[in-house]
Amino acid sequence: MPNLPNVVLWSIPAFVLLTVIELVSYRLHPDEDAAGYAAKDAVTSVGMGLGSLVFDLLWKIPTVAIYTAVYELTPLRVPVLWWTVPLMLLAQDFLYYWQHRGHHVIRVLWACHVVHHSSRKFNLTTALRQPWTSATSWPFYLPMIALGVHPAAVAFCYSVNLVYQFWIHTERIGKLPRAVEYVFNTPSHHRVHHASQGGYLDRNFAGILIVWDRMFGSWVGETERPEFGLTKNIETYNPLRVATHEYAAIARDVRAATSWRERAGRVFGGPGWQPAGAAVPAPAAPAALAALAAPAAPAAPVVTATAGAAEPAA
Predict the structure, then answer these.
(1) Do residues 91 and 209 lie in contact, with contact meaning Cβ atoms separated by under 8 Å?
(2) Using CA atoms, how far apart are residues 99 and 241, in angstroms rounded to an integer?
């Protein structure tokens, strides 16, 4: 087994320090337009991150077993050398792009990944908001194992990718020099990815290199200020509900389905999939046409009164 460092463990002090710096920066130089921090939201994100560490230990048992079996079956071997590690990182980053993209376009995979998008804030604690059902990711890296990359080396590359993505979850860094923005995933690119506006949805899936998005047509640059969260946000800070709410929604839709085709679509279609012929709300008639079609109302008598100021709704 290659002797590779645990990059996540070694990065924890940097995570804490950078988060404190970002939090203090909001205190000293607040930005009214930025999402910033909220105590409950940040606590939930950290809690989801700690919970993911526990659940990942469970999911690693079958994953390691499958990876080991495939690695033993393949006759290929890729040594862990100074020049092969960058190639492994490149291959893993390419496969991460497809893993990430797949988790946005297949609903049962989205049910795992939606956790990471469930915050309406965008700060360094958002990077820690990780799913508890990450067993859906392992199939995407089987090609590396089949080509002779040791499972421990795959895990190392995956950890490097996740550590890199920590710093791009911030609004405190604007756009970087053009050359950097063209090649690497940056806070600007990742803000687009976390936005809920229609033009930003399902864009910028990169881990480290944004060039994959440019190559496969999923890149969009940041123009208008992003609105973070989901197209239909959840109103809860309960970690268990955050982790499972989309699975519960899938279960409700499957129970209500009237055919096996619809059931399959509810699970394996896109997050917004609807069966053919589903009723679509009719667009509202323009106000001018509605006024012309409505019968004229009798003129009301003019009454003069002094109105009290309305109290705001609770």
Answers:
(1) no
(2) 24
The answer to whether 161 and 185 are in contact (CB under 8 A) is no
Tens digits of per-residue pLDDT, 22-40? 999 999 999 888 889 999 9
Nearest to 49 by CA among 134, 107, 161: 134
Alpha carbons 73 and 81: distance in angstroms, whole number: 22
CA distance 280 to 270: 17
CA distance 272 to 105: 9
Contact 220, 204 (CB under 8 A): yes
**Nearest 10 degrees: Cα torsion 160, 162, 165, 170:** -130
3-state class of 22 per DSSP? Answer: helix
Spatial contact of 97 and 12, defined as CB atoms under 8 Å apart = no
Matching residue, tokens 């009237």: 258
Structure tokens at 4: 């590779």
Question: Quick count: other Cβ atoms within 10 Å of Cβ 8?
Answer: 16
pTM passes above 0.85: yes
Task: Give the integer Cα–Cα distance in Å for 56 and 64.
Answer: 11
| CA neighbor of 71 nearest in space, from 7, 135, 1 | 1
